[in-house]
Write a structure and sequence with these properties.
alpha+beta; Aminopeptidase; 5 strands
Length: 93
């Protein structure tokens, strides 16, 4: 399902950012550094629970080749994401 999301929408990369968007809105984005530290991740509420965050994190992992780490402070929604991806986060290919 997530691959359909990526194929149907525009994925834009600029230094340290991936942004997924359509004609009307930003679907989600992730800001990161070359050490694999996730500085910020956002998914539009309309598109949550569809694997968007996971796919954005896969892109970061592929780009950096590093173990992914979330920078502090982690928001309540970020903690929920971390808990849901806990077993998968650093096994992302």
């Amino acid at each position: 399902m997530i691959y359909n999301i990526l194929s149907k929408h525009e994925l834009v990369y600029s230094e340290g950012f991936y942004t997924l968007k359509n004609l009307n809105t930003t679907i989600g984005f992730v800001r990161f550094n070359i050490n694999g530290e996730i500085e910020y991740i956002f998914v539009n509420p309309i598109f949550r629970k569809q694997g968007v965050a996971k796919q954005l994190l896969k892109l970061v992992k592929k780009k950096t080749g590093k173990k992914l780490v979330f920078q502090e402070p982690v928001s309540p929604l970020g903690s929920k994401l971390l808990n849901s991806l806990d077993k998968e986060l650093n096994s992302i290919q």
